[in-house]
Design goal:
The chain is mostly helical. 61% of the residues lie in helices and 7% in strands. The strands form 2 sheets. The protein has a 3-stranded mixed β-sheet, sandwiched between helices. Helix 7 packs across helix 10 and helix 8 runs antiparallel to helix 10. The longest helix is centred in the C-terminal third of the chain and has 38 residues. The chain is globular, with a radius of gyration of 21 Å.
């Protein structure tokens, strides 16, 4: 009696899997072959531009200090200059007014944000370059497009599980199966998200070094974030980024691979921030 619904479930799942794995593109910056579900860079740019005003409002809007805004934009443009030449993204850097939430994040297509709370913790331009370079790594790595494609696949598999498990004698059986499949899908996507963060750290080392900044200062950012957590609630940055210990090891490895003979002496820390605590 359940054969038709099993066939329908199999078709739904197969369509989702084929759609996911057949749509691939090679990233011109990382060289990685990615599954992005047919999402184009132009669509990423449009999505980021559309979402930026709302995201900014969640953090108190843009900071009113024009000098601080100019600093963030200048350092950001420096770290993304080479990547921007290879990808059709509109990199724009914004300082948010939030004085309490220690965070930085990137939207698809190049909209990148850092909060005043995090900027005030940083000690020099190189550390700012490291934070912004990391966020630019998310954009260049097309992590949002990858996650949207994975969500589409997960949705197809969840739907297939619900159809396959549906039972006229138990109307909630399909719903429970779909919920369980969705939970598993979230756990898988979370794992990939942490991998994305570590890739972004590696790209951050690359981008800040190309801009002339000492990549070892990104290790200093990890210490600042750890200290900002203190004995209480961790910074918001850690709710979406991996443990600082794992990240520090990744950063050290990236520096060693980039500069096997040691970090060149001409890479700089840049100006020291007076507001650093």
């Amino acid at each position: 009696m359940r054969k038709p619904q099993l066939i329908i479930a199999a078709v739904i799942a197969l369509f989702g899997i084929i759609s996911f794995y057949s749509m691939r593109s090679e990233n011109p910056v990382t060289g990685e072959v990615q599954h992005v579900g047919g999402i184009t860079p132009e669509q990423e740019v449009a999505l980021g531009l559309q979402s930026a005003p709302e995201m900014a409002q969640q953090f108190g809007g843009l900071d009113a200090d024009p000098n601080a805004q100019a600093l963030v934009k200048r350092i950001g443009n420096e770290v993304s200059r080479n990547a921007a030449a290879k990808l059709p993204y509109q990199f724009e850097y914004h300082l948010l007014a939030d004085p309490n939430t220690v965070n930085a994040f990137a939207l698809p297509g190049g909209q990148i944000f850092i909060t005043r709370a995090l900027l005030n913790q940083l000690e020099n331009e190189a550390q700012l370059a490291g934070v912004l370079g990391h966020e630019a790594g998310h954009v260049v790595g097309r992590h949002s497009a990858e996650h949207m494609a994975k969500s589409q696949l997960t949705g197809a598999l969840v739907g297939a599980a619900g159809v396959a498990a549906s039972d006229p004698n138990d109307p909630y059986r399909g719903q429970r199966a779909a919920m369980m499949a969705g939970f598993v899908g979230q756990m898988v996507n979370m794992k990939y998200g942490r991998s994305d963060e570590l890739e972004s750290d590696t790209l951050g080392v690359r981008f800040m070094s190309e801009a002339g900044y000492d990549p070892r200062e990104l290790l200093g950012v990890m210490k600042i974030l750890e200290k900002a957590g203190g004995g209480g609630r961790s910074p918001e940055f850690f709710s979406t980024h991996p443990n600082h210990g794992n990240r520090a090891a990744t950063i050290e490895d990236a520096i060693a691979k980039t500069f096997p003979s040691g970090v060149p002496s001409n890479l700089r820390k840049g100006e020291t921030f007076r507001s650093a605590s």
